[in-house]
Specification:
The complex is a heterodimer of chains A (380) and B (162). Chain A is an alpha/beta fold and 380 residues long. Chain A has 13 helices and twelve strands. Chain A has two domains: 134 residues, Aspartate Aminotransferase, domain 1 (Alpha-Beta Complex); 237 residues, Type I PLP-dependent aspartate aminotransferase-like (Major domain) (Aspartate Aminotransferase, domain 2), CATH 3.40.640. Chain B is of the alpha+beta class and 162 residues long. In chain B, α1 packs across α3 and α2 packs across α3. Classes of the chains: A alpha/beta (380), B alpha+beta (162).
C-alpha cells in the first residue's frame, strides 16, 4: 500500500534495535527498561476492579472525570502549581498523548521547536508530525545536563517558537532547581518562547523537591505542563496522563483530543483518583527504594572508574564510558548479557553515554554492575 | 538514629547486605554503617539475622502451628512470667501477647503434628495459669518475613523500552 510521505519519513526508534538484540537472548539482565519494576499500588488497582464490577465501562467527559481533574488540581498544589480543574486540565491517554496534543495545538507548519538533547525519544517525531522544525539544543555533561541560556543561545534558540523542557530528565536523570529554571524562564520571556514542560518524573526526585518552570514569574501563561501516572504510581500499562495550562491551550488540546481519543481510559481514571487520594505512602516507599538503588549504582560506577554524574531524579543514570556508545552497548550485551540503551538514541548530545535504568531489583543491579565491572576489566 | 534507621531499612529488606553494599545504597561510609549496626545490636534493636525458608520445598518434614493460649493471671503471676516460661521452649518459634479473644499467640515448630500436639498438651496446657489452648496447624505458607513465596521472576516488562 502506498504510505504517506510523513509516515515513510518517520524513522524507526533507535531503541527498537536494542530491544530486538536483547530479546534474542534469554540470559539478559536488562538495565534498559524505561518503566517502574513495581506494580501500581493495590488501592489503585482495587479501585479499577471496583469500577469494573460496578459496570463503569462507558466514556467519560472528554476532559476526563471532573473528580479526577479536581484530585489532580489538589495534588499539584504541592508544587505550587494552581490550575482550574474545569478549564485548565485535560486527562489524556498517557503523557504520550498529551505531548502529541500539545505539539498539534501549539505548532504551526514551519515553527521552530527547541528540544534539549539528550531527551526522551518522542519529542522530535512529535514535532515532525505536527509540521514543525526541530532545533536540537545540546545540554552538556559538565553542566550536569542542565539547560542553560548559554547553550540555548549557542543553538540559536532565540528564534524558537516553542521549547520542550523535560526535567527530571529521561535519559540523564538530571533535574533543574528554581534558580536554573529562572534563567531559562528569563530567556523564554525575552524571546517570547512558549514551553511544553514534560514533568512526568516530578514525583521521583532525590534530595530536593521538584520545581516547575510554570511557577516562574510570567511563565504560567506560556507553559503547558504535562504529567501522568505512569512513573510515579507505576501505572504505565493503564495509559493515563494529563496536561495543565492556560485555558485556551487546554481548550485547543481538548478539541483535538475529542476527535482523536474521545476520552482517556475510564478504568484507569478510577484507579488514578484512588492513587491521588490514598497512595502517597506507596510513592514515598518507591522513591526510597529508587534512591537506594541510585546511590548504589552511582557509587559502583564511581568505584569502577566509570565517569558518571550523580543523577537527581527519574530512575536513570547516564555514565560516560567514552568511545562509541552503540558499540559499547552491543559488546556489553554480547559479552556479559547486560542490556543498556546507548545514549545516542536520545540525540547527538547523548553520544558516548549509556542510559542505565535502575528500575530493577537490587539483586539484579548487583549482578549487572558486577558484569559491567568485568566487562570494563576485560577491555583494559 | 537517622543512620541507624537507614541501615535498618536495608537490613530488614536483606540482612545479608555487606557493610560495603549498605554504604553504597545509603550514601553513608562503611565505618558509619558498621557503627550503626553495632549500636543497633548493642541496644537490642536488632536481635538476630535469619533466613526466610520455604520448608515445603525441602525434603524435610516441618510442621508449624499457631496456638491460641488463654491464661488466668493471679496476684503473683503476670503475662511476663508466663511468656518467659513459654518462650524458653525451643519449639516456641515466636510468641506474642495479643488483643482480642485470647492472650498469647504462639508460633510452634515441630517435626510432626504429633510433636507439636505433644508439646502443647504436655508442656503448655498443664501450666497452672493456662485455661485453654486452640491449635491451628499451618497448611500452606504464602508469605513470610515480608517475602512472598512464589516462583521468582514474573517481570513481564519489555526488556528495553524508551
Ligand atoms: C520523559 C517521558 N515523557 C513521557 C513518557 C510517556 O509516558 P506515558 O506512559 O504517560 O505515555 C515517558 C515514558 O517513558 C517519558 O520517559
Amino acid at each position: 500500500m502506498r504510505l504517506s510521505e510523513r509516515a515513510r519519513d518517520l524513522p524507526e526508534s533507535g531503541i527498537r534495535k536494542f530491544f530486538e538484540l536483547a530479546e534474542a537472548r534469554d540470559d539478559v539482565i536488562s538495565l534498559g527498561v524505561g518503566e517502574p519494576d513495581f506494580s501500581a499500588p493495590w488501592a489503585a488497582r482495587t479501585a479499577a476492579i471496583d469500577s469494573l464490577e460496578r459496570g463503569r465501562t462507558s466514556y467519560t467527559a472528554n476532559r476526563g472525570m471532573l473528580e479526577l481533574r479536581e484530585a489532580i488540581a489538589d495534588h499539584h498544589r504541592r508544587y505550587d502549581q494552581v490550575y482550574d480543574p474545569e478549564s485548565e486540565i485535560v486527562v489524556t491517554t498517557g503523557a504520550s498523548e498529551a505531548v502529541d496534543l500539545a505539539f498539534r495545538a501549539l505548532v504551526d507548519p514551519g515553527d521552530t521547536v527547541a528540544i534539549h538533547e539528550p531527551a526522551y525519544i518522542s519529542y522530535g517525531p512529535g514535532v515532525d508530525l505536527a509540521g514543525g522544525e526541530r532545533l536540537p539544543v545540546r545540554t552538556r555533561a559538565e553542566d550536569d545536563f542542565v539547560l542553560t541560556p548559554e547553550v540555548l543561545s549557542e543553538a540559536g534558540a532565540e528564534d524558537a517558537d516553542l521549547l520542550v523542557l523535560c526535567y527530571p530528565n529521561n535519559p540523564t536523570g538530571a533535574t533543574m532547581d528554581a534558580d536554573e529554571l529562572a534563567d531559562v524562564a528569563a530567556f523564554c520571556r525575552e524571546h517570547d518562547i512558549r514551553v511544553i514542560a514534560d514533568e512526568i518524573y516530578a514525583a521521583l526526585t532525590y534530595g530536593s523537591d521538584h520545581d516547575s518552570i510554570a511557577t516562574q514569574p510570567g511563565m504560567r501563561e506560556r507553559t503547558v505542563v504535562i504529567n501522568g501516572f505512569s512513573k510515579a504510581y507505576a501505572m504505565t500499562g493503564l495509559r493515563l496522563g494529563y496536561a495543565m495550562g492556560p485555558a485556551e491551550a487546554i481548550d485547543a488540546m481538548n478539541r483535538i483530543h475529542q476527535y482523536t481519543m474521545l476520552s482517556a481510559p475510564t478504568t484507569a481514571q478510577y484507579a488514578a483518583i484512588e492513587a491521588l487520594r490514598s497512595c502517597d505512602d506507596e510513592v514515598t516507599e518507591m522513591v526510597k527504594e529508587y534512591d537506594r538503588r541510585r546511590n548504589y549504582v552511582h557509587s559502583r560506577f564511581r568505584e569502577m572508574g566509570l565517569d558518571c554524574f550523580e543523577p537527581k531524579g527519574a530512575f536513570y543514570a547516564f555514565p560516560q564510558p567514552g568511545g562509541d556508545d552503540e558499540q559499547f552497548a552491543e559488546d556489553l550485551l554480547e559479552e556479559q548479557g547486560v542490556a543498556v540503551v546507548p545514549g545516542s538514541v536520545f540525540g547527538e548530545g547523548g553520544a558516548g553515554h549509556l542510559r542505565v535504568s535502575y528500575a530493577t531489583s537490587m539483586r539484579e543491579l548487583k549482578a549487572a554492575t558486577d558484569r559491567i565491572e568485568a566487562f570494563l576489566a576485560d577491555r583494559d | 538514629m537517622n543512620d541507624e534507621r537507614e541501615v535498618l531499612d536495608v537490613l530488614t529488606t536483606n540482612a545479608r547486605e555487606s557493610a560495603a553494599d549498605i554504604a553504597a545504597q545509603t550514601g553513608l561510609d562503611e565505618e558509619a554503617v558498621e557503627a550503626a549496626i553495632a549500636s543497633l545490636e548493642r541496644e537490642g534493636i536488632v536481635h538476630g539475622y535469619q533466613a526466610v525458608v520455604d520448608w515445603d520445598r525441602t525434603d524435610e518434614e516441618k510442621v508449624r502451628a499457631v496456638v491460641e493460649v488463654n491464661v488466668e493471671l493471679d496476684r503473683e503471676t503476670g503475662y511476663e512470667e508466663i511468656a518467659d516460661r513459654i518462650a524458653k521452649f525451643p519449639a516456641t518459634h515466636a510468641l506474642h501477647l495479643v488483643s482480642g479473644d485470647y492472650d498469647f499467640a504462639v508460633e510452634v515448630e515441630g517435626a510432626s503434628m504429633q510433636d507439636v500436639s505433644r508439646f502443647i498438651s504436655e508442656q503448655v496446657a498443664p501450666m497452672p495459669e493456662v485455661t485453654q489452648t486452640v491449635t491451628h496447624y499451618i497448611m500452606e505458607t504464602y508469605k513470610d518475613g515480608g517475602i512472598r513465596f512464589e516462583d521468582g521472576d514474573d517481570d513481564d516488562r519489555l526488556s528495553v523500552s524508551p
